Amino acid sequence: MKITVSEKGLPERRSALLCVSLFEEDVNKRSAPAKLPAGIRKWIELVLSRKDFKGAPGESNLSYPEAKDQPQRILLTGLGKKKDFSWEQFRRAIGLITNSLSKINVNTFDCMLPGEGEWKHFDLPTAVREASLTYTLSCYQFLEYRSQKIKKEEHRKIKQMNVVYFSNPGKSKLRRELEKGRILGESVNFSRNLVNHPSSYMTPARLADLASKTGNKKLLKAKILNRKEMEKLKMGGLLGVSKGSDQPPKFIVLEYFPNNKKEKPLVFVGKGVTFDTGGISLKPPQGMDQMKYDMAGGAAVIGALAAISRLGIKRNVVGLIPATENMPGGHAYKPGDILKMMNGKTVEVLNTDAEGRLILADALAYAQKYEPAAIIDLATLTGACLVALGHEAIGLMSNSKSLTRSVSESAVNTHERVWELPLWEEYGELIKSSIADIQNIGGRNAGTITAAAFLKEFVSDTPWVHLDIAGTAWADKPKPYQPKGATGVGVRLLTDLVSNWKNL
Ligand code: BES
Ligand code: ZN
Ligand code: ZN
Predict the structure, then answer these.
(1) Ligand 1 pocket, mutate which of 283, 347, 381 (most atoms under 8 A from CB)
(2) For residue 169, is pLDDT > 80?
(3) Is 401 in contact with 318 (CB distance < 8 Å)?
(4) Which end of the chain is more exposed for a tag (fewer CB within 10 A), N or C?
């Protein structure tokens, strides 16, 4: 896959395919973009006069102009009404174009930028960056486990995109934006890969190994703690959960310090359960195959640090990923066991399937040694989050209004949307234990919140946001720039947060 930007305007050559996006208003007026040469405009206006194409979002139309001064094919895509247009609609339009291409026999295509000259919020550098990001995301395929023949056929569907623009040039800046979009897209795709691999391949050790090889090698430092080191640190949660598995646990530390060490870092923590059987409190068989995505929080943190370091964003950031399997082996931790966590708190285990919060507790305690400016954790933590919010929103719970605001802004920017649930004192009552300090489940009600209330015990006063991505990390159905499977959610959100970071 390759993406280029053309010199101002349409290239001289006869294009194999030109993609043109149109608003409903312009379709109704049968008017083609004024910037296009008269011949092409005339052809588009002819197509529009047939009234097959209404310009609704998600709609497309392919036609074959004949004249020599016109592209061999024109693909029209609908943008809907101008008043409803947004950067998310922009990304969906690029996604739709990409998906339509798989059936079209071309290697290269020219693509006009949706909304240019028509939408009042249009901004050329942003548009080029978002187009390049979205094209990279839309081309994602996970083919590692297909045989060679199918792999080749599928790869052939990927084309080279040439971005065409008409407004003020400044080509070098645009190249940079193109590159930024591509790097971000590749980082999301990297995160998707980590999640899509089966757990027999993506073990804690493999995850740690891949994490230490990613990102800007000069600036992103990896440190992998093994079981011995965890014992020294008294990480009772991570050690407890890992006992039932033959795969050794790993605690992955990624440090990115482009600035003076004195600048307090943002610390990102990601749940890295490479497979969650539930342990002794075994899960039912249906859907258990999906539990390979229980490390999606970790994958998001790794992807985000890859992006942030490659983009060279000037902000100190640390990523922490406790990685383990949750297995019901002969040495497994059991209901009724009591674990002592890194910060000294004791936890009564009432359900070994509530393992995520146990390993995150140690990571959150470990985070304190950085005196972080803020902590954000991402975890596929509760099935209850799926019940409450479905696949559309990340569940957000926090102890800080201002950090919630910053994260929410990034959520809007990236369309990785968050929805806040309350984390009032009262919920803390539900996890009090009769024998230890706290217990690892809170009963039937408010499962997403009691999980967060548990984590809150380990963050002290640091501004902290917890993101439950159980519903958003995996897609059962494809969307315009998101194939089925791992979504890579969180990578764009965290990267946007760091880019726009202002002290709380
Ligand atoms: N990894 C699961 C949560 C999950 C469920 C993620 C479905 C994605 C899809 C987590 O470890 C878990 O099993 N949580 C339990 C908690 C319960 C025992 C309090 C759950 O949600 O059922
Ligand atoms: Zn579980
Ligand atoms: Zn889990």
Answers:
(1) 381
(2) no
(3) no
(4) C
